[in-house]
Amino acid sequence: MKTTLALTVTALSISLVGFAQEPDWEKMYKESQKTEVYQPVPPKVVPGNIFGEAPSDAIILFDGTDLDKWTYDNPKNPESWKLGDGILTVDKKAGGLTTKGSYMDYQLHLEYRIPKGITGEGQSRGNSGIFLAYLGLDESGLFEEGYEIQILDNYNNETYVNGQVGSMYKQSIPLANAAKAPGEWQTYDIVWKVPRFKEDGSIASPASVTALHNGVLVQNNYQLKGITPWIGPPSYRKHGASPIRLQSHGDPNEPISFRNIWLREL
Q1: pLDDT 10s digits, 121-154
Q2: Which of 209, 204, 238 is nearest to 223 (CA)?
Q3: Beta pairing, strands 97-99 & 70-72
Q4: CA-based nearest residue to 170, from 248, 234, 250, 124
Q5: Most buried residue among 57, 92, 151, 224 by CB atoms closer than 10 A?
Q6: Which of 220, 64, 231 is nearest to 142 (CA)?
Q7: Alpha carbon distance 153, 128 (integer Å)
Q8: Cα–Cα dist 227/241, whole Å
Q9: How far apart are CA 122 and CA 157, in angstroms?
Q10: pLDDT in tens, 240-252
Q11: Where are the alpha helices (DSSP H) in 62-179?
């Protein structure tokens, strides 16, 4: 008799527990709808068919055909970067190349190649850079000012770590060295946010950068302390939308090449 009673009580307990745990799905669905958002609807963007191909809303800065989106510091300079077979190669006598357009926040894709026969060592080996916001030359007229992410051959080449490829020059060491061998095409995919300033010129929010080098994260929402000068500490000065610049580094070694450059304004 005791056994039968025990089994009955156990069965009733299981039944009650099961009943107590049965969720009220209709009520839960209604509660969940309170946190559903339907506006604004994200715009449709058609992605490229292969990695690196520009999406439908991109601004094409260089597609291998012309330099219409770019300008030199001295447009009357008879020297120019070499264009052929869809590839743009630095001519160091021509100086840097700067976009005609100015931009705030954006996503940038760029491909570059260091020549297979590159010589030199340290900073004199495949040196170039991308100024994500170019602010012009400094007071001496000799050095570029802005926020530079470094291009350099660091496949088998050592240098100071805050000046190797993937660094925000002299400021942020890359999270990894993802350099490929000279002669291979390499990629940068960068998300850039320009700094914001108060009326008095003080900083309201710093610049930030997220960057993938050859598909590897090298800068993870790094907040910059200012521009990236060759000499001296970083600092900010008030500015707004700025052009992008490809550096023509002054070392005597073989020039690098670029292709497939586009951005999406954010």
Answers
A1: 999 999 999 999 999 999 888 889 999 999 999 9
A2: 209
A3: antiparallel
A4: 234
A5: 151
A6: 231
A7: 9
A8: 15
A9: 6
A10: 999 999 999 988 8
A11: none
Residue 211 in tokens: 């960057």
Smallest CA-to-CA distance from 94 within 255, 258, 242, 253 is with: 255
Tokens for 143, please give them.
């050095």
Residues 6 or more apart whose CB falls under 8 angstroms from that of 101 comprise 59, 69, 243
Q: Which residues contact 147 (CB under 8 A, 6 or more apart)?
A: 131, 132, 133, 168, 192, 207, 209, 224, 227, 228
* Residue carrying the six token digits 């700067």: 98
Q: Taking the model in full, what pTM does it have?
A: 0.86
CA distance 192 to 102: 13
Beta-carbon contacts of 163 under 8 Å, excluding residues fewer than 6 positions away, are 123, 150, 152, 169, 170
Q: Pick the closest to residue 162 from 146, 148, 143 (CA basis).
A: 148
Three-state secondary structure call for residue 112:
strand
* 86: Cβ contacts below 8 Å, ≥ 6 apart: 63, 64, 65, 259
Structure tokens that stand for 93 in this block: 């006598």
For 44, the 3-state DSSP assignment is coil
- Which of these, 83, 114, 116, lies nearest to 97 by C-alpha position? 83
What's the distance, Cα to Cα, between the start and end of the chain in Å?
77
